[in-house]
Amino acid sequence: MLAWIRRFDLKKAGYVSVLIGIINILVHILVITGIIPYLWVNGGRSESFSAAQSTSFSSILITVISILITVIASQIIPIRFNKFWGIVISVFLIVTLPLSFIGIIFQFLGTIFEKCVMSIVTIVGFCADTRIAFEKRW
User: Fold this and answer.
1) What digits encode the pLDDT tens for the residues 49-76?
2) Would you call 40 helix, strand, or coil by DSSP?
3) What is the pTM of this model?
4) Which long-range contacts (CB under 8 A, 24 or more apart) does 13-16 make?
5) N or C: which end of the chain has fewer CB within 10 A?
6) Residue 56: is it exposed, middle or buried by C-beta count within 10 angstroms (0-12/13-18/19+)?
């Protein structure tokens, strides 16, 4: 299975993952600006617009950090790792994969917008992240 996953190009998976992160940021910016109703995201559980704004700001921050890690891990910006840092990044990425899978499940349990649009975005991101996570870095 790992050999099949590693057949895909690492940098292309990195670019796809960054693109998915940018789409995620754009959706949250549209929520903050009021273009997309705040009841369409976060499973429709936000009680007010200010609560949705707070959640969107947090999501943007987490996504930016995720994009930085992706750019480094997928070698879009080539950085040589010693064995310790290669193992740390690999373990971090592999441990966060179940969280991404849980995110897919929550997308399907959310609003119509999340089911129809964001679930596809999340699944594509999960596939790209899986490729990046299983790269041998040491």
Assistant:
1) 999 999 999 999 999 999 999 999 998 9
2) helix
3) 0.88
4) 13/74, 13/127, 13/128, 13/129, 13/131, 13/132, 14/70, 14/71, 14/73, 14/74, 14/75, 14/76, 14/128, 14/132, 15/74, 15/76, 16/124, 16/125, 16/127, 16/128
5) N
6) buried
pLDDT tens for each residue of 26-54: 999 999 999 999 999 988 888 899 999 99
C-alpha dihedral sign at 5, 10, 12, 16: positive
Sign of CA dihedral 89, 94, 95, 101: positive
Q: Look up residue 128 and give its amino acid.
A: A
State residue 109 phi and psi, 5-degree precision. Answer: -95, 0
Closest to 50 (Cα-Cα) out of 42, 40, 62, 38 = 38
